[in-house]
Amino acid sequence: xxxxxxxxxxxxxxxxxxxxxxxxxxxxxxxxxxxxxxxxxxxxxxxxxxxxxxxxxxxxxxxxxxxxxxxxxxxxxxxxxxxxxxxxxxxxxxxxxxxxxxxxxxxxxxxxxxxxxxxxxxxxxxxxxxxxxxxxxxxxxxxxxxxxxxxxxxxxxxxxxxxxxxxxxxxxxxxxxxxxxxxxxxxxxxxxxxxxxxxxxxxxxxxxxxxxxxxxxxxxxxxxxxxxxxxxxxxxxxxxxxxxxxxxxxxxxxxxxxxxxxxxxxxxxxxxxxxxx
Length: 277
Known about the structure:
With 277 residues, the chain is mainly beta. It folds into 3 domains: 3-61 and 196-223, Pseudouridine synthase (2-Layer Sandwich), CATH 3.30.2350.10; 63-194, Pseudouridine synthase (2-Layer Sandwich); 228-275. Helices cover 15% and strands 38% of the residues. The strands form 4 sheets. Strands 1, 2, 3, 4, 7, 10, 11, 12, 13 and 14 form a 10-stranded mixed sheet that branches. The longest helix has 12 residues, at 15-26.
């Protein structure tokens, strides 16, 4: 049994916890496609069985979030679970909207010290929890949209964010506050979409049981937004490239109507890239 579960992760549970429970429920290896912090909720795509081999493909897909930022204070984790630091002004909606273009497009972003970034073989948060200094390097990320939805409280504002892989929403709260000359952190976060997986089709985590999970399993090829090709040439499945008139690019590969995996075309040659059957 292989495919995807589009899970609506609840607040208070880690992505790893969700995956471990699903491993027991399905009796099959599972893996999530993009971590959600424990305080966050929303869409968590989970690969079941061989679908986990597509991790790199799905990790690169755009993600959409609704986030609430609080200004005038922050925490060391940049979320509600950290230690608070007070101080700083509360910006106006106009000031916020004026700063947002500076954090849209391709930007350099410093990951939070409380993150899973690897530092000398360990996670950054392991050093931070011990009070040790962590040296992280800014990395280029893509923020496609960063829009102010409205003010939700005296010092809180809601945002709609569309971004690429590796973008930390908590870091956007920190950086936006810095642009405004104040402090800020993310108080609430919900992922509403991750590639083809959306909250409209997401299944509440509590509803996934040994009796129900198969009914929510999305076929692997149904979740892949690529053109398809069917090739009956047995040489292709023995590691040999075959001639094709298809344009260069990545394809869903079928063998006599059955989904096989992914294949790539380059310079008139078709070759298998990822076997999933």
